[in-house]
Amino acid sequence: MEYMSQEGYDKLVAELHQLERVELPRVKEAIAEARDKGDLSENFEYHAAKREQARLLGRIRFKQRVLEFARVIDKSKLGGDGVCLLSRVEMTNLVNNMKMVYTLVSPHEANLREGKISIKSPIGQALLNKKVGDVVEVQVPAGTQKLRIDSIQMS
């Protein structure tokens, strides 16, 4: 079971709809056009379209599987003063005194450009259930980071 926000669930449904209703028909049409050109054994366009179809079908199956086991989290039932899924956490890196703000989300919603990190990432795991003022040490590829939690808000 994978918990996620309503926004993340809706986005995943929209992506699946786009793949099934737009992308897949486009690829099937490309396969039909390439097939009409004759000899399939040396038809690059046909083989490329078949590879694209296989890639799309894999993505569709993956998204269907994620949605099958997804559970939308009820924000009203989240609470307390500790860090949990959908918490917006402001923290300070004590090594370089840099401020950071992240929202903890499911792995399928993670997007670093939007400030959303996976709850299963090293930083996400280290922050879970911590409170304002706590200092956590996190092992990341760049080394060990010491992070102080400055504030926690529900997003």
Structure overview:
- The protein has a five-stranded mixed β-sheet with strand order 5-4-3-7-6.
- The protein has 155 residues and is α/β, with parallel strands linked by helices.
- The chain starts with a strand and ends with a strand.
- It has two domains: 71 residues, Orthogonal Bundle (Helix Hairpins), CATH 1.10.287; 77 residues, Chitinase A, domain 3 (Roll).
- The radius of gyration is 22 Å and the shape is elongated.
- Helix 1 runs antiparallel to helix 2.
- A hairpin with a 2-residue loop joins strand 6 and strand 7.
- The protein has three helices and seven strands.
Give structural attributes:
alpha/beta, 7 strands, single chain, 155 residues, Chitinase A, domain 3
